[in-house]
Design a protein that fits this description.
- By secondary structure, this protein is an alpha+beta fold.
- The chain has three domains: about 190 residues, Beta-grasp domain (Ubiquitin-like (UB roll)); about 70 residues, Uridine Diphospho-n-acetylenolpyruvylglucosamine Reductase, domain 2 (2-Layer Sandwich); about 110 residues, CO dehydrogenase flavoprotein, C-terminal domain (Enolase-like, domain 1, 2-Layer Sandwich).
- About 35% of the residues lie in helices and about 20% in strands.
- The protein has a five-stranded mixed β-sheet. A five-stranded antiparallel β-sheet has the order 10-11-16-12-13.
- Helix 3 packs across helix 4 and helix 3 packs across helix 6.
Length: about 475
């Protein structure tokens, strides 16, 4: 049995969304259906942050909130959750401390970006019991928010001033007990939505399912082979917004428990396909610090809160920030058909540009890495036109183990230098067992250039990428070998 509506709360009010209403983006729904126009839309792809809202996830009898971009979040993805907009942040005639500080500190000029900035800072100011993440600095919290006229100094000063104002708990404003209780009662059954869209050809409905087991998900996929998998939606929803694709059928995976969590099994680390980059970031802070450094430059907090490991793999971009790390860690991709799992070495998973070794009835269920990789030295590199929130021009990962000044183990992977990320086996062979000297690194750089085939595009020339292939090895030598010798 299924239900034919999506149930969630918005600013403390219960909502039942049916039909085409459920297929709108949250930002469109807020502005069009609820007249909550404080949520702004500029880029419609999750870059500017003007559409930022708080999304609350029930955890036992509490609700934990995080900042998300509402322009790339569909209403049907809100099932069982609580949305708070800029209008719901104030409490009666009392402004939230961030709102008060922004007003007092003149942190707004034209005001178009201000609601999103306030929501991002409010998410970062939540009490630990109400937040899904560790605290960021004000600058880090605002990576995903653009302001073209105020200047960030006044905004940062306002964020610091807000810390000195009285504490504010959403649990007092929106008591979680009653909300969680009603959410559980209304969402006992998974939903299956179907609605005819007059904008489409007659007889072609839009459909969405939100199964709770892998078996159910795969069964739906077999019956509806054209359906697209939907996890966080930080890539798929951008493509829909920009009218590059228009999937009529979607299978949401976020409630499939088999795809969630990070765990140890035998000598392996298993990362569920539903694990968000925020979850991985929090885990890496304790368990894999070098990975945490890379994730600090990965997208924005709003994107990391929603984007998933499986989604990044499925996107198959040759400049995906996570892939070089997975390549040198010799990750295996778990393809699942509901009952059986196939573990595919990541080098064999990509058969060409955007071509995956996935059968029609399979999805990316998990990623598996041997725990021994955690103990090896590792350095991850990202080269882009700006430091934060930018698509990479070139990426690299180097993993090594030195014994008496020689490379006992060495693995290298480059991204942005071919149709897929490339593991540099010839360069590794040239380094393995050798004493690490400047001359050896320079020779290895020449070998690396011979192994890659970069193209020129809007982000850089092939000449520049070839030079990076050499200079990254030199940077590694001077910063990791000489400085630690």
């Amino acid at each position: 049995m299924t239900r034919d509506y999506v149930f969630f709360f918005c600013n403390g009010q219960p909502i039942r969304a049916k039909g085409l209403e459920a297929f709108q983006t949250l930002s469109t729904w807020l502005r069009k259906e609820r007249q909550l126009t404080g949520t702004k839309v500029v880029c419609a792809e999750g870059d500017c942050g003007a559409c930022t809202v708080l999304l609350g996830y029930p955890r036992a009898e509490k609700i934990k909130y995080e900042a998300v971009n509402s322009c790339i979040l569909n209403v049907h993805q809100l099932d069982g959750l609580h949305v708070i907009t800029i209008e719901g942040l104030a409490w009666g005639d009392r402004l939230h401390p961030v709102q008060q500080a922004m007003r007092d500190g003149f942190g707004s000029q034209c005001g178009y970006c201000t609601p999103g900035i306030v929501m991002a800072l409010a998410a970062n100011s939540l009490a630990d019991s109400e937040s899904t993440r560790t605290k960021l600095t004000a600058t880090e919290a605002l990576v995903g928010n653009l302001c073209r006229c105020t200047g960030y100094e006044a905004i940062i000063d306002s964020a610091e001033a807000a810390k000195k104002l009285s504490s504010w708990k959403l649990a007092d404003q929106y008591p979680p007990g009653a909300i969680v209780k009603q959410l559980k009662e209304e969402t006992k059954l998974p939903f299956g939505l179907q609605e005819a869209d007059p904008a489409l050809e007659q007889g072609i409905p839009r459909k969405c399912w939100r199964p709770r087991t892998l078996r159910d998900a795969i069964e739906i996929k077999r019956k509806h082979p054209e359906a697209r998998w939907l996890a966080g939606g930080t890539d798929l929803c951008v493509q829909i917004n920009k009218e590059r694709i228009d999937p009529k059928e979607l299978i949401a995976t976020s409630e499939i428990s088999e795809l969630c969590g990070i765990r140890e099994v035998g000598g392996h680390l298993i990362f569920g396909g539903n694990v968000s980059w925020k979850e991985l970031e929090e885990w890496a802070l304790v368990n894999w610090p070098n990975l945490k450094e890379m994730l600090d430059l990965f997208a924005s907090p709003q994107i990391r809160n929603r984007g998933t490991i499986a989604g990044n793999l499925a996107n198959a971009s040759p400049v995906a920030d996570s892939l070089p790390w997975l390549y040198v860690s010799e990750a295996e991709i778990g393809a699942c058909d509901g009952e059986n799992w196939r573990w595919i070495p990541i080098e064999k998973f990509y058969k060409g540009y955007k071509l995956l070794d996935l059968r029609p009835s399979e999805l990316i269920g998990a990623i598996r890495i041997q725990k021994s990789h955690q103990s090896l030295s590792q350095r991850l590199f990202k080269v882009s036109k700006r430091k934060d929130l930018d698509i990479s021009t070139f990426t690299a990962a180097i993993q090594w183990q030195m014994v008496e000044g020689r490379f006992q183990q060495i693995r290298l992977a480059y991204g942005g230098v071919g149709p897929t990320v490339i593991r540099l086996h010839k360069t590794e062979k040239a380094l393995r067992g050798k004493e690490c000297t400047k001359d050896l690194i320079e020779k290895a750089g020449k070998t690396a250039v011979a192994e890659i085939s970069p193209i020129s595009d809007v982000r850089s020339s092939n000449y520049y990428r070839n030079r990076l292939a050499e200079t990254i090895l030199k940077k590694f030598f001077y910063e990791e070998i000489l400085l630690t010798a």
